[in-house]
């Protein structure tokens, strides 16, 4: 999973960013179609959607990619719930996604370049807090974190082949 959300094509995308931050994430994250070159839609991380994916797929670990794309943002918002016509919910509102309004929690961003980090301890505290928040809220641990686009810019927290 990416440290933020993207979507290709039309349809509801409640956490979509229609501002400079969305454009920055698109540019820094190279979020353009590989064949068409069309820009992908970008948005904040959607925890209700992530929790749903973890639950229905029986996941026991997350590979969190493109964490470095968020470097330099003053704050990072995360959708933790939705306000829907029937009330607030932390569940993914697949039946009423078009009318769902995201409820955000803001977390502090970080300025330091992440590419040289080879362990969680080498990441900025704010970055580690962001990862812990995702793990706690998704009820699923991170097993891999990418901090850059190169192979060596990956922190392996739990290698299933070494168990």
From TrEMBL:
Binding annotation for substrate: 34-40
Organism, as annotated: Labilithrix luteola
Cofactor annotation remark: Binds 1 Mg(2+) ion per subunit.
Protein name: Adenylosuccinate synthetase
Gene Ontology CC annotations of this record: cytoplasm
EC number(s) per entry: 6.3.4.4
InterPro entries per the UniProt record, alphabetical: Adenylosuccinate_synth_dom3, Adenylosuccinate_synthetase, P-loop_NTPase
Enzyme's top EC category: ligase
Cofactor section: Mg(2+)
Complex formation: Homodimer.
Family: Belongs to the adenylosuccinate synthetase family.
GO biological process: 'de novo' AMP biosynthetic process; IMP metabolic process
Pathway: Purine metabolism; AMP biosynthesis via de novo pathway; AMP from IMP: step 1/2
Superkingdom per UniProt: Bacteria
Any one Pfam family match given in the protein's UniProt record, by short name: Adenylsucc_synt
């Amino acid at each position: 999973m990416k440290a933020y959300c993207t979507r290709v094509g039309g349809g509801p995308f409640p956490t979509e960013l229609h501002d400079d931050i969305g454009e920055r994430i698109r540019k820094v994250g190279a979020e353009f179609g590989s064949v068409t070159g069309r820009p992908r839609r970008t948005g904040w991380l959607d925890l209700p959607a992530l929790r749903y994916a973890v639950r229905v797929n029986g996941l026991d670990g997350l590979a969190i990619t493109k964490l470095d794309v968020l470097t330099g943002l003053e704050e990072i918002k995360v959708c933790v719930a939705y306000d829907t016509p029937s009330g607030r919910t932390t569940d993914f509102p697949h039946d009423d996604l078009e009318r769902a309004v995201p409820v955000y929690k803001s977390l502090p961003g970080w300025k330091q370049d992440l590419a040289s980090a080879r362990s969680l301890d080498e990441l900025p505290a704010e970055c580690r807090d962001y990862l812990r928040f995702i793990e706690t809220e998704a009820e699923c641990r991170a097993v891999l974190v990418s901090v850059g686009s190169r192979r060596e810019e990956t922190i392996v927290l739990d290698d299933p082949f070494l168990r």
